[in-house]
Amino acid sequence: MGSLIDGGETDPRPQGAAGAFHRAGLEQAREPAPSALRFPDGAHFRIEIPSVEGPRVLEAVLDAAQEHDIVVNRVSQGSGAMLLKEVELRDMAALGAEAGLEVSLFVGPREGWGTGAHARSPDGASQAGQLRGTEQLAYAVEDVLRAVEAGIRGFLVADLGLLSILNEMKEAGELPTSCVWKVSVMMAPSNPAALRVLERLGAGTVNVPSDVTTAQLAELRTASSLPLDLYVESPDGLGGVVRGNESAALVAAGAPMYVKFGLRNARPLYPAGEQLVAEASAIARAKVHRAAVALEWIRRLAPELRQSAPAAEGLAVPLPPTGATLPAG
């Protein structure tokens, strides 16, 4: 883009980094062709704040979003719905419904918290989010049913078997059609073939590795139209990448995309509880700040990219109960 010069004329020469590179005889790396896919409302991206571990932390997110004048489209939680009281589930559903944002809760049981040692060993850590045997699988299904009764419609899934069971239950009418299964980063596909497998099993959105390049992101995008979830800043346990300034390029290559903000140098929160509420709230507010900064980068570098508004089509916005055990919507 050119800039104004004396006399009000537009200078046709490239400005900013492009202009500096041109003068220095340098060539910037080419970005992949932009994705032509969009969310149902026509938007390129949505903002997600993860590790929102209960109603009080969700309130902190909503307060920070208002303070920074930004829209948060989705919050997710990692400790699991099973660790929240039913009144807390209903409170999160009510807050999400009022704000028009998706509330996605991790399905509680997991192998890493069970009595077995394998998932807590160095070689077995990759299986920590899976479900051990039919006992944990049954608890996971009940965890989803319990949260659905409270109005929750979004769920984080880290086990292939559970994903297939939940999708079959939805197809059979045993779970609301508005439920969205969000594949956890613990099961992130690193290649297009794996992404297609998750799509066939009923995934609604899929976390991809936080260190993915724009070229790799474009490869994933060509394989599926599913929304992709990407940590543009990830906690230390997921590599600690800090790339909010790249958000525009990442969205262009991967749209439709949930742009997700973890926080480097923050303590792990799972399983969260009363002893961590103040810290979890402070961490959540810092993530909203990171999101506000990234949105400034997007407006600076690619103002044509559009974010979804609250309650946009396709969001698993909670539906607080009105008396029915399993609402149809």
Radius of gyration: 21 Å
Strand segment tally = 10
Spatially, the strands of the biggest sheet line up as: 3-4-5-6-7-8-9-10
Mean pLDDT: 91
Query: What's the number of domains?
Result: 1
Tell me what portion of residues adopts beta-strand conformation. Answer: 5-15%
- CATH T-level topology: TIM Barrel
Oligomer: single chain
Number of helices: 9
- For the record, the CATH class is Alpha Beta
Helix content: 25-40%
Structural class: alpha/beta
Written description of the protein model:
It is a single chain. This protein is of the alpha/beta class and 329 residues long. The protein has a single domain (32-301), classed as Aldolase class I (TIM Barrel). It contains nine helices and ten strands. An eight-stranded parallel β-barrel has the order 3-4-5-6-7-8-9-10, surrounded by five helices. It has a two-stranded antiparallel sheet with strand order 1-2. α2 packs parallel to α3 (86-99) and α7 packs parallel to α8 (247-254).
